[in-house]
């Protein structure tokens, strides 16, 4: 566990310096106060600085963040990482310039990165946390695009009276299609094929 020792006029000053060195937020660290500050006699003699030990928490959120930092360092790209940990889920948003390389064709690279991080962080863990990685709102925009596509192709299947076959998608994207169309009584959806070429079929009800 990475830790640094810092001094400052106050405990908060010392902690702030440590956070800068660690590149972490206050929620990502544990703080141990080694020495409380004191003014000494007449505010001069025997005055003592605050001294703290600040260490990174080794939780799943920090593991995911550290793994991503190592990956991006190896790729020689600058990426800002913001993690928000909830009870059963960790949402990680990546920020930076020209991050299309991390999204890939229809999000394939982003999905692979997310799979890798989930696999690594949850390995040998009794309690698993779902890790969702996004890049500046890409997944929300992609979801909106898929919802519109689903409705358009459902109408097409109904009007033509025959099945419409979509391109292969990840399980997460297929779930979006199934969900947006599940309330319709004029068509139904099902999946066929093997991963990673599994695809959705939109079929009119006879």
From TrEMBL:
Q: Mind telling me which CDD domains this protein's record contains?
A: KH-II_Jag, R3H_jag
Q: Its Gene Ontology biological processes?
A: cell wall organization; peptidoglycan biosynthetic process; regulation of cell shape
- Asked if Cell wall biogenesis/degradation is a keyword of the record, the answer is yes
* Source superkingdom: Bacteria
- Which Pfam families does the protein's record reference? Jag_N (PF14804), KH_KhpA-B (PF13083), R3H (PF01424)
| Subunit structure and binding partners | Forms a complex with KhpA.
Q: Family assignment?
A: Belongs to the KhpB RNA-binding protein family.
User: Can you name this protein?
Assistant: RNA-binding protein KhpB
* The species this protein was found in: Pelotomaculum schinkii
């Amino acid at each position: 566990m990475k830790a640094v020792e810092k001094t400052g006029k106050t405990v908060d000053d010392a902690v702030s310096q440590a956070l800068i060195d660690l590149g972490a937020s206050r929620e990502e660290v544990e703080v141990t106060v080694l020495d409380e500050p004191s003014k000494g006699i007449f505010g001069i003699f025997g005055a003592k600085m605050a001294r703290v030990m600040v260490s990174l928490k080794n939780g799943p959120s920090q593991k995911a963040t550290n793994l991503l930092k190592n990956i991006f360092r190896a790729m020689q790209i600058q990426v800002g990482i913001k993690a928000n940990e909830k009870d059963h889920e960790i949402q990680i948003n990546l920020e930076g310039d020209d991050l299309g390389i991390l999204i890939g064709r229809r999000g394939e690279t982003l999905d692979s990165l997310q799979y890798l991080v989930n696999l690594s962080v949850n390995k040998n863990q009794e309690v698993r946390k779902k890790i969702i990685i996004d890049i500046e709102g890409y997944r929300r925009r992609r979801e909106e695009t898929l919802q519109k596509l689903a409705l358009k192709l459902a109408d097409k299947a109904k009007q033509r009276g025959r099945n419409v076959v979509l391109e292969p998608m990840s399980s997460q994207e297929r779930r979006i299609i199934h969900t947006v169309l599940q309330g319709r009584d004029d068509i139904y959806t099902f999946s066929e094929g093997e991963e990673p070429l599994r695809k959705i079929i939109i079929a009119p009800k006879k």
